[in-house]
Amino acid sequence: MRRTLVSLALLSACYSPDYTTKPCVDNSGCPSGYFCSTAKLCTVGGSTASVDMAPDPRPTRVEVEVRPTGSFYMGTSATDGINDMPTHLVTNPMPYFLDEREVTVAEYRSCVMAQVCTAPVMGAYGNETPKWVCTYGVSGQDQHPVTCVTKDQADKFCKWMDRRLPTELEWEYAALGLAGSTNQRLVFPGALGGNACWSMNGSCPVASFVKTYLGQIVSADKPGFYDLLGNAWEKTSSPFCTYPAESCPTETKLSVRGGSGWDTDLKFSKATARLGNTASEYYPNQGFRCARNSTP
Length: 296
Hints:
By secondary structure, the protein is of the alpha+beta class. The protein is built from four helices and 16 strands. The strands form six sheets. The chain has a four-stranded mixed beta sheet with strand order 14-13-12-15, covered by helices on one side. The protein has a three-stranded antiparallel beta sheet with strand order 3-6-16, covered by helices on one side. Strand 9 and strand 10 (216-218) form a beta hairpin.
């Protein structure tokens, strides 16, 4: 019996588990002797370890929690929008976070510099007059929404930020809340006026216009969202289904929402308006923002 106990003690002393693949959020999520690295994995600490002291290269992004009521009317029965008929009842079962602002050129560049993202297409695009230009690489546009990104590039950035692209349902609820059931179609009550980056022949610095939350204008110190109307159309992760279908397995296009600073046609100003693009398509008037799940 004594020999067995000695053997067990020796085996225990020799056993040294490897926690270097254990995911973490901060140092409290790692066992003694380990710290949480910028890669969000437990890493060995101590004098014999190579400690990663580099700052986290990811930009600070403000996000706003949306707590849905469960069901709301999506789309419209009006005929002045595009691809948004008929209105239909949908359920948003989970609360979620959505970025306060569209991803900017400077923020996306930090992902490129970290060698996680690839640079988007730059320069002039197409034969439009006035000329359309992708925002990446343009002097003075670091705070404009990054455009000319594919869905894969948007996904890469959001994943790097521990986020994801929003669904179309999440995007519309953040824009209108329950206001859609009262026939409100803009992201704020009233007329378009000068409240959004609209009919500008280009993009604007993010957060230059009003902040909104669930169909209402809110003050800058309150939780809310900028540029859900105008500046850049925003990519979602949802297939471009024909309403009222929410699932269309053979559809190859994805929904984009919100209108842009290049637009002048008022049908694109409706928060319910939708366009469909393939995952590989990119345009100077399209960008994105990220989302993530919250706790119920």
